[in-house]
Amino acid sequence: MKVFQSINPLQNALNASMTQQRTITSNISNVDTSNYKRKTVSFQENLQEAVSQRFQSYKSNPNHVSFSTEQKSPANVTVKTDNNTLSKSNKNNVDMDVEMAELAKNQLWYNSMIEKTNSQFRDLQTAIRGS
Questions:
Q1: CB 6 within 8 A of CB 122
Q2: Positive or negative, the Cα torsion across 101, 17, 42, 45?
Q3: Taking the CA atoms of the chain, what radius of gyration do you get in angstroms?
Q4: What DSSP state is assigned to residue 2?
Q5: Which of 75, 81, 91, 111 has a beta carbon 3.0–4.6 Å from 47's, enabling a disulfide?
Q6: Hey, which bits of the chain come out as E strands?
Q7: What are the pLDDT digits (tens) for 87-97?
Q8: How does DSSP classify residue 65?
Q9: Which residue has the higher pLDDT, 65 or 130?
Q10: What does the alpha-carbon distance between residue 30 and residue 94 come to, in Å, rounded to a whole number?
Q11: What is the mean pLDDT of the chain?
Q12: Among 51, 49, 84, 54, which residue's Cα sits nearest to residue 67?
């Protein structure tokens, strides 16, 4: 339904943020587990790539304005294991300071997406009620 077209990406962002939250808390809970490898979520990078691809256009003349109406599929959430770093003698690569910083960053992202979602619903409510 076209009314909810602007809310669907926000729903995807909120779901990705929840996945990020679970991943970070899993890393924190395994901070002392031997051989545990840190996991990361790459939603925001995928989102940026999808957005940049969506807004590219072909121009036959350099003076033309760039635009696009292509609809790309929503960015996917990818959980990756970081096997490249090693920070402890027990072969665990979880750094508590990094995880806490990522947790705070994710909380800010989540809060901003909630605010934007609430704004969309307020706008919809205003349109329905007329004032």
A1: no
A2: negative
A3: 20
A4: G
A5: 75
A6: 39-41, 79-81
A7: 778 889 999 99
A8: P
A9: 130
A10: 8
A11: 80
A12: 54
Residue 109 has which token pair? 């992202």
- Are 110 and 21 spatial neighbours (Cβ–Cβ below 8 Å)? yes
* Residue pointed to by tokens 């704004």: 119
C-alpha span between 43 and 120 (Å, rounded): 22
CA dist 55 and 35 (Å) reads 42
Task: Read off the pTM.
Answer: 0.70
Q: How does pLDDT run across 27-77, given as a tens digit for each residue?
A: 999 999 998 999 998 876 655 555 555 545 556 676 665 554 444 444 578
> Going along 12-116, which residue ranges are E strands?
39-41, 79-81
Residue 27 burial by CB count (10 A; 0-12/13-18/19+): exposed, middle or buried?
Answer: buried
Residue indicated by tokens 């690569």:
93
